[in-house]
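Hi X.,

You mentioned you wanted examples for the new student's onboarding notes, showing what a folding record looks like when two proteins sit in one file. Here is a clean example. The first protein comes first, with its sequence line followed by its structure tokens.
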Amino acid sequence: MQLTLKSRPMLHSRIHLQSVCQPMPLRSTTAAAPSVIRATPNERPIGPESGGQRKQPPRGGDDEPTVGRKAGHSLGKVPAGGSQLGRGKSSKRITPRRNGYQKNGTVTASPAQLNRLIMACRDLTSLDQVIKGNDHSFDERHVATAMNRIAMVHDRKNQSQVDMAQRMMQDLSVVALHQVNCMDARCLSSVLWALGSVGGWIYFAATKLPGFNAQDLSNSLWAFAKLGIEDDAFTAALLSVAERKLPGFNAQELSNSLWASAKLGIEDDAFIAALLSVAKLKLPDFEAQSLSNSLWAIANLGIKDDAFIAALLRVAKRKLPDFDEQALSNSLWAIAKLDIEDDAFTAALLSVAKRKLPDFTAQALSNSLWAAAKLGIEDEAFVATWLSVARRKLAEFNSIDLRQVSTSIASRDKWNIDKGFKDRIAARSGNKGGDL
């Protein structure tokens, strides 16, 4: 099998938080279908993106990882039997007073008061006392606040402080695991940041990952890609476990893992090769969106695996009628990016895309024209339909779309596009055309 991966920079842990319990910056805030990144004249599209910052996970619905409760699991509360943190039942309860703490074995603080009490701690020792004394009252917000406080107050240059912070984070991770389904995006992203900041992922990987099943592993990889988390230690541990369990992955889990690998820029050749090997056997089970996402992923990773690509295109060709406008645009971009010469597949893809062009977004129209120009497509019916739709939606094109359209048109003299439209695009984009 020929497997070639393009060079990518190594990953580093670069997760930032501006204040306590604030969510880490997400690369996307919507759950729409992925679309292809917009390209400048000198930089080609590199993958599905849409809206805003245009960083997108696989679309929702059947193609989004299924996460939730499993039968027999009661999440959201710490299991009965006492405290999960530190000294357990023997811990003294600490309650707030106007002039300090009152140790009396009971808790009288409201949830808001307890949160303020956690935030008021300025060192690990006082924070540890509050956590151990009130852990039975912790909800998901308190867990997120406490984790963030640990990350912010410990001295990273003091090894004993680092060790204490990691121990406290490990204890809180037990509670967090039981409350994860209660967490909204703000709490969850704050927990993820805190774990990454203190090194909690190393503990988590070492103690939990071996027990993950295929769906757990796929969901975790997908979540890292969605949230833009880059943590070398956890990712390496995750891939190591996932590689051994790849034969148990279903089609959706394989597609999501391949998509996430591309988003994260995974450079583990052995994992990618194993993933493609298993995915190739299960391609007939891939849905239309999974096929499109997988084609985008291998293009974005720069993979040259002729056998896998040929098998994927055979399956995709049969399911092209099920491709929506975004999947069609993504697929056009991918075959152009990979310089695929498959006239039968390209013709079938253009035929379906031509019928659905009226549903394409401005970005999808721009990317599709770029792909057609790069592939040297001379399909007059496709170009005419594209032009008709683009005229109606021209107000929706932003400056990046317009520059890409201008460059694409300038590269194809044989396309029957009137000078008035060309001039209008060039004037609005400020682009005189150029090489693709």
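Then the second protein repeats the pattern, sequence line and then tokens:
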Amino acid sequence: VGISLDQNADGIKIEQKAFAKNIEPIRLASGLMRDNERILDHSEKKSYQMLLGKINWLAHQSRPDISYDAYSTSLASQSPTVKDLKSLNKVVTKIQSGLDHILFPKLDENSLQILAFCDASLNNCNDKVSSGAGYLICLADKDGKC
């Protein structure tokens, strides 16, 4: 859904420009945006969760740079506040102004290796209770391209 693949001599490019372009921030009346601690009403919460779903889809498919943002804003999805909504809207701004594709370069098929990276932190999330972890597994060649 909304994914474009292009293969050429340089490698394979994956992008979701059209999908990302249609992701828009949630707008509330300015008076409703003043109280950061106000819990969103049912309709606002539903909008928050729908936007979060789009951001998660994008993060998992073609935008690993927003993965942590998607994760951290999802922690509030059961009872989001205006402050959480502002954070989610900042992710939308990041999407609109950030990278728009991933290029998997052509690799030397005679020197392939699997590389894995991971990181984790204890109690590092906004709620000061949840912990985060991430990992990246890629196929690389002797030049380190992956």
